[in-house]
Write a structure and sequence with these properties.
The complex is a heterodimer. By secondary structure, chain A is of the alpha/beta class. Chain A is 37% helix and 19% strand. Chain A has two domains: 180 residues, Rossmann fold; 124 residues, Rossmann fold (3-Layer(aba) Sandwich), CATH 3.40.50.920. Chain A has 13 helices and 14 strands. In chain A, helix 1 packs parallel to helix 8. In chain B, helix 1 packs across helix 11 and helix 4 packs across helix 11. The chains are: A alpha/beta, B alpha/beta.
Amino acid sequence: MLTEKPATTTLTIAQAAREALAEEMRRDPTVWALGEDLAAGGIFGTYKGLVDEFGPRRIVSTPISESMIMNVGFGAALAGTRPVIEMRILDFALCAWDELINQIAKARFMFGGQTNVPLVVRLPQGIGRGFQAAQHSQSLEAWLVHMPGLVVIAPATAADEKGMLKTAIRSDDPVVLLDPKSLFATSGEVPGGEYTTPIGVARIARQGADVTVVTWSSLLPTVLSAAESAQGEGVSVEVIDLRSLWPWDRDAVLASCAKTKRVLVAHEAVQIGGFGAEIAATINAELGIPVSRLGAPRIPVGYSPVLENTYRLSADRVLGAIRATAARSV
Amino acid sequence: MVRIREFEQHARIGYDRGEIPGVVHLSIGQEAVAAGVCANLTREDYVASTHRGHGHCIAKGADTTAMMAELFGKTTGTNKGKGGSMHIADFSVGMLGANGVVGGGIGIAVGAAQASRLLGKANVSVCFFGDGAVNRGPFLEGLNWAAVFELPVLFVCEDNAFSAFTRASTTTAGKGAAARAEGIGVRSRSVDGNNVFAIYDAVGELLQRVRAGDGPAFLHAPTYRLDGHTVFDSAPYRSNEEVERHREDDPVAYVESRLHQWGVDGAELDRIRVEAREEMLRAMERARSAPFPQPADAFADVQLIGAPPC
């Protein structure tokens, strides 16, 4: 009898997320999900059909009560279950920041280690499909990475969305999953069979020799496109998909930077005070090399296409930053 | 109730002597609510509490020695000195934590109830909060949630008449907490918050239906905070006459007088008081001699993945 490794399948990120949750709910009866419109599949289809398999007590469509969604998930995590807390989009989770920051992030420490806090908070973030204006487009990973007690992950591929969500659900820490809103419909190869993806390990998304670009989440495809263009200009770009923001993979980043000695950190979020600054400072302190940064200008996201595009990083802008970084003398 | 009173009085002494370093909110005058509610609970039931939570902890069965050590900031504290008065928790007795945020415990209790149902457990969750919390969003969100999902939660509004330094009546519109709960469709009772017998009976009746699966219930228990908001607060915003008038309704004195009427002799009441006092003096002595945390302890218990390097 042949024992073949299961073939890969092609899934969108939304489908991969759905598969991860379904597999974990089959595996562990204490896993459940709560959030608005979940019985209807969620606004991105990441819960599609799950209520049919698991029933309304495990796929819970809640009132539009963000602070209660967050705190009910917290209380349920203290009482022996593993909730997946869906906040619809990150911007709405700001109504539940007290519960996330004052309660969830601090509970293990504040209670002297009496309890685990095994929950996942899902915050789809970024510009998404576009033209949704200032309250539906933000990327706030810097706020979250800043907060002791939280694990923060930001996958950008279907395989990582599935594997990292599964790891997050099994974790005994509160894990914030920043779903890449604009990439939900993007397809990718997903390994067949059971697998999980570790938290804290970066992925080399493209190998290169001249410039390292560190990026994550929604900006990854844009960076890969710019890297391809740079190749045509004779610049070999290594792209690191950080995937996990806290903890982040210092070893992988530093190893690549030590090799190329020309580094750009790029993210969709506002550049000033962004998480890229932390990475740049670390690279500079460890390796003594200058690091370029690229992020959005410090402006709210405007509705009109011209305004949104002024905020949004295009492949051309990333390419320009790669060229400038490549031109640095080392 | 006597143990709560003695604990609070000794916490005050510990603060005045400089042995308790941080903020303490005393519940002197409010002991009947904690005792009357928790006497209806089992160890398996959950309680979520407030910043003024010592009484709830003691009534739910937390160890006063570990609680006092927590106030002293010592490693033998319930939370290893990491939480202090406002975060005392004892998960071993179902006490899911005091809370530094007004209304912060409401969702925790509701969530614990939702978990219990998912796990097929028969226990209930009780959430204590004050008059201030009824003006926060979680009050509406939590009662609505518990009602629509028919969860086994008892909400207890321990109304001590003051939202910090301000009279709650001047900041709360409408007909009060119970009317609001009724408006959301949660079965409600109002009862004298200084009468432990009345509270015990009312909670017993409410919990009978909560335990039977009839959904949440609400208890409004007006009482009076005899001390300031915190140990720093001399409460200059109210008159001594007002406080003295309320001392006549002291819930501990009321219990003692009733017990006396029922034939419990004075010596027995004295013995209860002396035992409670000795318990708290021992707790203070143990707290005094216990070690403080080391700086390295500040790096422990933060998180498992991505833990801070010490």
